[in-house]
Every structure is written in C-alpha cells, then in structure tokens.
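Data card: per-record layout.
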Amino acid sequence: VDPTRTISAGKVNIGAFRTYPEGYKAENEMIDYQPIPLNKTQDFGVHYKKYYSLEVSFFKSSLDKRLLEHLWNRYWVSTL
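The structure for this 80-residue chain is written out next.
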C-alpha cells in the first residue's frame, strides 16, 4: 500500500513488486516490461533497477462484505 498516493487519491493504492534473481542480465528487448515508476526510485534507492511491478487484482468475498459492513456500521461516525 502506497500511503502517499492513498491519502492524495482518497482511495487505497495497492502495488506489488518482485525482484530479479541475483546475477540477472536484462535482454536488449524487454516485452511487457514495466519498470518501477520514477517516483518510487527514491523509496528503493540504488536497487530500483532490481525490481519490476506485478499486475494486482483483488476481490471481495461475501464474508469480506459482511465484515466491512459491520465495521462501517460501527465506526462510520469517526469518518465525520
């Protein structure tokens, strides 16, 4: 979860990253390659080229829905 983007967008920003194996050499032609966003290079420091982003998907089950409704009904006042 990116707290800065979450606060500025008003919704949770979720991302996932993976590291390249030790000794990995990138090919000249990268297909479907998406590097770390430039604004995240500060977070990863000198190792920013050793990460790549993964596609993220999520879902809400019926149990998740009930739990979230319960939490909302109990704590909605604190959002005011």
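Known properties of this structure: The two ends are 24 Å apart (CA to CA). Residues 62-75 form the longest helix (14 residues).

See the next section for split statistics.
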